[in-house]
Amino acid sequence: MAWLASPPPTANMDASIAPDASGVLATPAPRPARHNGTHPASGRPMIEVRNLRKEYVMGAEHVIALDRINLGIARGQICCIYGESGSGKSTLLNQLAGMERPTRGGVRIGGIVVSRLDERELAEFRQKHIGFVFQSYNLLPGLNAVENVAMPLMFRGVPREEREARARAMLRRVGLGKRLNHYPSQMSGGQQQRVGIARAFVTRPQVVFADEPTGNLDSKTKVDIMDMIRDFARENGQTIVLVTHDEHMAAYADRIVTLLDGRIVHDTEQDE
Ligand SMILES: Nc1ncnc2c1ncn2[C@@H]1O[C@H](COP(=O)(O)OP(=O)(O)O)[C@@H](O)[C@H]1O
Ligand SMILES: [Mg+2]
């Protein structure tokens, strides 16, 4: 547990990430080594979860949503968090991404103790290193496809012309070259999720979290969406944490971590 005792990162995220992480958060290699559980340069997983527990207090009742979770996810791995409804999948993703604070234990991403960052540091950390894909797409309704995809680049200070050019290129890659100026309400669920994927990957984040990304889609579209997520991830050596209760989607992962009642009950790696 030594790493939990390390001091919290400084306000300067670049300074805190670069030396500490031994290049874990640096530009990824195109085709990472798989299945070895560690990052070759640092000898440490990209994502580390130690003795994680999350309780919710609801009046007199305590819900133990997660307990004794230990997990290391290698850089470049597509890791599926699998389990039935209520097993704790979303809670785990929320702790990994720093959306909620664990009751006990901690999460490191690329050497950074996410569970210790304050709100401002977290926002900056997410903008720089994390992408999200949501079940309900979470596009901004008042922005068209290009503007939605360009949004994370705006937060990174990329000039307007460049970010819109990159957004258009991403949208073409997800097959939406003819929907660039469409608003979310003018697109199907599958098209909206393609926009969501373009938005998650446009910044080439080190880690992409996806919570039931195909949960609202028909079976043909599900396959297209999973193919896209996998292809982008492989191209950039990105680490993907995919939450699903759908065994067909889990089959896309390198590894399936199964939750039941907030505990890990299976952890298996699989071949493509
Ligand atoms: N904010 C919350 N307050 C109270 N209980 C919660 C909260 N979020 C989740 N839970 C409970 O924690 C357990 C795990 O929920 P969740 O992580 O959403 O499961 P899953 O995503 O696998 O369906 C459930 O029993 C759920 O009711
Ligand atoms: Mg859930």
UniProtKB/TrEMBL annotation:
InterPro entries: AAA+_ATPase, ABC_transporter-like_ATP-bd, ABC_transporter-like_CS, ABC_transpr_LolD-like, MacB-like_ATP-bd, P-loop_NTPase. PROSITE patterns: ABC_TRANSPORTER_1, ABC_TRANSPORTER_2. It holds the Pfam family ABC_tran. Keywords: ATP-binding, Nucleotide-binding, Transport. GO terms for cellular component: membrane protein complex; plasma membrane. GO terms for molecular function: ATP binding; ATP hydrolysis activity; transmembrane transporter activity. This is ABC transporter, ATP-binding protein. Residues 47-272 form the ABC transporter domain. Residues 22-45 are annotated as: Disordered. It comes from Bifidobacterium apri. CDD domains: ABC_MJ0796_LolCDE_FtsE.
